[in-house]
């Protein structure tokens, strides 16, 4: 053990662990914070109506976002090919949605590839999230 000025041998270990934790990026976020980040990246305000249209339209692939999440993503959806139940997507109906920026990016990346055949732009993400945030109980 390393000597400690306080006489408690574990104090250095605790200090080191605390320092390491502060170096990790924060993953938690609110939907509003994520919308703000996407809007800043896009360089233009989000448009909820455009997000709703994007969500419900096909983009040259077999599926739209609504194919799995439903036209109104306030209720559980079902994966179009596996049938797996998907929790509501609208944040007001599922507080876990858009509460973790890493998860949000992971799912946008996967789902945009399935729906659009590429990663969605920051503007597309902002528009869809802006629309989802308008859906209230």
Q: Could you walk me through the main structural features you see in this protein, from its secondary elements to its overall organization?
A:
With 137 residues, this protein is an all-alpha fold. The protein has one domain: Orthogonal Bundle (Cytochrome Bc1 Complex, Chain D, domain 2), CATH 1.10.760. Helices cover 48% and strands 3% of the residues. It has 6 helices and 2 strands. The chain has helices at residues 11-23, 31-42, 48-56, 66-69, 101-115, 122-134, and strands spanning 77-78, 85-86. Strands 1-2 form a two-stranded antiparallel ribbon. A hairpin with a 6-residue loop joins strand 1 and strand 2 (85-86). Helix 2 (31-42) runs antiparallel to helix 6 and helix 3 crosses helix 6 (122-134). The protein is globular and about 35 Å long. It starts with 10 loop residues before the first helix and ends with a helix. Residues 8-25 have low confidence and may be disordered.
């Amino acid at each position: 053990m390393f000597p400690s000025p306080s006489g408690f041998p574990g104090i250095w270990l605790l200090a080191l662990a605390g320092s390491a934790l502060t170096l990790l990026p924060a993953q938690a976020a609110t939907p509003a914070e994520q919308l703000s980040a996407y809007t800043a990246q896009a360089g233009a305000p989000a448009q909820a109506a455009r997000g709703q249209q994007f969500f419900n339209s096909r983009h040259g692939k077999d599926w739209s976002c609504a194919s799995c999440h439903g036209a109104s993503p306030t209720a559980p959806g079902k994966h179009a090919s596996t049938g797996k139940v998907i929790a509501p997507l609208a944040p007001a109906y599922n507080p876990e949605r858009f509460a973790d920026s890493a998860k949000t990016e992971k799912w946008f990346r996967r789902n945009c590839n399935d729906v659009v055949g590429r990663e969605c732009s920051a503007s597309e993400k902002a528009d869809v999230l802006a629309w989802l945030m308008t859906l209230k109980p």
